[in-house]
TrEMBL record:
Protein's name in the database: Dipeptidase
Keywords: Signal
Cross-referenced InterPro entries: Metal_Hydrolase (IPR032466), Pept_M19 (IPR008257), TAT_signal (IPR006311)
Coiled-coil spans in chain: none
Source lineage: Bacteria, Pseudomonadati, Pseudomonadota, Alphaproteobacteria, Caulobacterales
Organism: Phenylobacterium conjunctum
Signal peptide bounds: 1-24
Length: 376
């Protein structure tokens, strides 16, 4: 039995339950990357690029859009604004919003700002990439709760409470005290509910996550994570967290990250393992994908390895690195990092016996239903 919001999502998407997934049936599926990007990772490595107007600073070029379209992705939650660093969090966030707004204004045939669930379907039907504005920290809100309304008016639809360290709202996954949600954090959760912004508990510590689930009057999400039962690392979520999100009607996105395996070198089969486990814990209506990356492949892994070593060293020095990040690991799954990643994932899930209607839910219909619940 499908609940009301799942029925509405299926009807709106035009993808009634069938014997084959939308991909295989030749239909245009709803594919939502609950945390990802549309950048070309080869540009910072010195590759020449033909940029979209306004895309230079964001590493978004013609190839990035072409690969995104070829992948079939409908919409992507793109991280913008302050995450960490010495900048003023609020001012940096406003400047980043200006930059993204300019990019979207300059490329209306390619990109569409997603404000409602209907915009996700509009992006699919018009052949554009839906861009969801999301934060991976709420430090820029701070004690100024009115900023939530300001950000929401600018189009921000997802706000993650913490990054890896603790902040004034709660403890991140790498904060050893695991102290939970602070009084200010509870006020921010309440304000996010009022503003109809998704409360994202990715990167949070376990107690902060469980406290936020209890405090929120609306369903919450963990947009990019793995399952702690399969790989005991802080960035992955415990059964209690996963189950708590599902029981409240929320959404869990499984990432394509090194944390899926203790040795830091997961393959596509490991992604499927985590999705299958999450389906068992959460049920088929609450699991999706949040890859934490774009679809463009890395052309030269040797050059990339050198850049990654520097990045990991900088993250460790700044105190924002997570257990499982190492210079010899990649922030993606090597055999699921190209324009065919979603097709491959659908085929692998089908090979495990996952039903076609469930595959369509995992690829995007579950996020669409959750978006309808929160954004309208």
């Amino acid at each position: 039995m499908l609940d009301r919001r799942q029925t509405l999502a299926l009807a709106a998407a035009g993808l009634a339950a069938s014997a084959v997934p939308a991909f295989a049936a030749g239909k245009k599926p709803v594919i939502v990357n609950a945390l990802g990007g549309i950048m070309n990772p080869n540009i910072p490595l010195g590759q020449k690029a033909t940029f979209l107007p306004g895309g230079e600073e964001l590493d978004i070029d013609v190839r990035a859009i072409a690969d995104a379209r070829a992948s079939g992705v409908t919409a992507v939650n793109c991280t913008l604004g302050y995450v960490a660093g010495p900048q003023d969090p609020h001012q940096f966030t406003l400047e980043d919003l200006d930059q993204w707004d300019a990019l979207l204004r300059a490329n209306p045939k390619d990109l569409l700002l997603v404000r409602t669930a209907a915009d996700i379907l509009k992006a699919r039907d018009e052949g554009r990439i839906g861009v969801i504005y999301g934060f991976q920290n709420a430090l820029q809100v701070g004690e100024h709760l009115e900023r939530v309304d300001q950000y929401a008016a600018r189009g921000v639809r997802v706000i993650q409470l913490t990054y890896n360290p603790a902040n004034t709202l709660g403890d991140g996954s790498m904060a050893p005290e695991n102290r939970g949600l602070t009084p200010l954090g509870r006020k921010v959760v309440e304000k996010l509910n009022q503003a109809r912004v998704m409360v994202d508990l990715s990167h949070s510590g376990e107690r902060t996550c469980l406290d936020a689930i209890a405090a929120s009057k609306a369903p919450i999400s963990i947009n990019h994570t793995g399952c702690r039962a399969l790989a005991d690392l802080p960035r992955n979520k415990t059964d209690a967290e996963l189950r708590g999100v599902a029981e409240k009607g929320g959404f869990v996105g499984v990432y394509f990250m090194p944390f899926l395996k203790i040795d830091g070198h997961p393959r596509a089969a490991d992604v499927v393992d985590h999705i299958e486990y999450a389906l068992k814990v959460c049920g088929e209506d609450h699991v999706g994908i949040g890859t934490d990356g774009s679809v463009v492949g890395v052309d030269d892994l040797a050059v990339y390895q050198g850049a990654l070593e520097k990045e990991i060293a900088e993250r460790r020095a700044a105190g924002i690195s997570a257990s499982g990040e190492r210079p010899d690991t990649y922030p993606f799954v090597v055999d699921l990092r190209d324009r065919n990643q979603f097709h491959k994932l659908a085929d692998l899930l089908a090979g495990r016996g996952v039903k076609p209607r469930v595959i369509d839910k995992v690829l995007g219909l579950n996020f669409l239903a959750y978006a309808q619940e929160i954004w309208g």
